[in-house]
Design a protein that fits this description.
mainly alpha, 9 helices, 2 strands, flat, disordered N terminus
Length: 304
Amino acid sequence: PPHLLYSPPLLFWDYFCVYPSSALHGLRVTSQLVARALVSEPHKLQGSKRHRYASPHTATMQSGESIYNLIPHPVMMPPMQHMHVSKHPGEVDPHGFEIGVNNKRGKATFGHATGTLKPKTDHFLKSHAGEPTLPPPAPPTLPKDKMKPAVPLKGDKPVMGLVSAKNFVTANAVENILSQPKKKFVEPTMSTSKPDYGKVPRYLQTIKGQIQSEKEMIAEYQRQQAETMGGSMRQMSTGERDALVVELKQKWQKVNEAYQKLPFTLDTPMRKIRKESLESELTQLEKDIKTMQGRQVVVVEEDY
């Protein structure tokens, strides 16, 4: 139908929805005919019933497809570049050039030349070939000094008739007169002969002074605490402390007798509990006796 030829590019599904009565006619229209009509008469797009789809970009954005994609696009061939021509003549051997290398070395970049590593059958490792060769013997450059005179030969004769005019008695006396006396051996000083022997060292006096000052500080603190408590604290006398120790020992003796009378078999829970209580009581009594012996005890009297 003519309105289909001049309508914008549509999918068949859109055509069925808009024109359900002309669906059979739309099936006969091919995409090539529609594309040809759009290219030949684009001015009639504005008079179509669906002129709102006249822009191909709008149709592409909404549906995702476009009839313009069916039109073959011309292939643009890139222009050919000029062929590179070297400034050096082709007859020159390239191996003679030094490209960035001042001192050209063999096998520095591409390894050994072809055929140079071929094994040679006449050059093989022989016996003792790797050992160092010593130079031939030569006379020493620095001769050693002789410590003793050489042994006289068989034909040598001793010198006879030598007489010395030296007076050995006078020479010995002069040497003894002019000689320096030897150093005398100094005996080590005895510890008992030193001036500070038997005296208290200075560092011990310093330590004793520090201990005495700490004791005085503690005594002053205890005196202040006693004054603050209002006489509720007093030091236990030696007689009271000894009597208390005796009573603790007697009690420990009684508890120990009860502990020794326990049976060997602890088959009931009550016997186990009895044994554990006696052991804990004995341990506590031993600690109390050890605390009371040889120490000053302070008694704090509390008012109930």
